[in-house]
Amino acid sequence: MKYNPNQKQSRGIQRTQRAFAAAMFKSLAEKPFDKITINALCQRADYPRATFYNYFDDKFDLLNFCWFKIAQDIHLNVNDVHLNRATIKEAFAQIYKLFNSYQSLLLSIIENNPIDSPLVNHFIRYFTQIIYTSIKSNLNLKAIQTPTELVAQHCSSTILEVLKWIYLGQHKVSLEEAENYLSELLSGPIYLEDNPE
């Protein structure tokens, strides 16, 4: 992003960024991402084009900011805690609840942007990376030989696969059921014999 959202910001900057993010979300609920223009976003946000470029390089940069704003509600920081099933389950529950709170927005975006579209793939990659980074930074794998990066990738991908199946596939699943799915998938639901006869 052109402007670092982690830096302390004035109210004016926050207001401007929120206006552009709201314009993007409203536009995504009405049309495919590739049909959204910078001019239309500026008109909807009620700011000139030059202001847009003060904060964002392009509409993909604004999209990253939108995902960043959603992700701020996820608190995956489990520093000083050995990452185990309980902490992964807790992280999953936070993301499940977050996605649930944005469900109507996600559904309206999917109506205009197919599940296999670049927009949805961008969303999935963004959140997979957030989860991956959090898990990787908190893993302590002394008991197994598998590389940390591979374990983190496996866990983050599995979490996102469950969430994709629920929210993008529009399956009505309770948090408890979703946690059971995740637990089984991480444990290995397929049991293969070494020497089948």
From TrEMBL:
Classification via SUPFAM superfamilies: Homeodomain-like
DNA-binding region: 37-56
GO MF terms held by the record: DNA binding
HTH tetR-type domain location: 14-74
PROSITE patterns on file: HTH_TETR_2
InterPro entries tied to this protein: Homeodomain-like_sf (IPR009057), HTH-type_Tx_Regulator (IPR050624), HTH_TetR (IPR001647)
Coiled coil, from the record: none
Alphabetized UniProt keyword annotations: DNA-binding
Name of this protein: HTH tetR-type domain-containing protein
Organism in which the protein naturally occurs: Companilactobacillus alimentarius DSM 20249
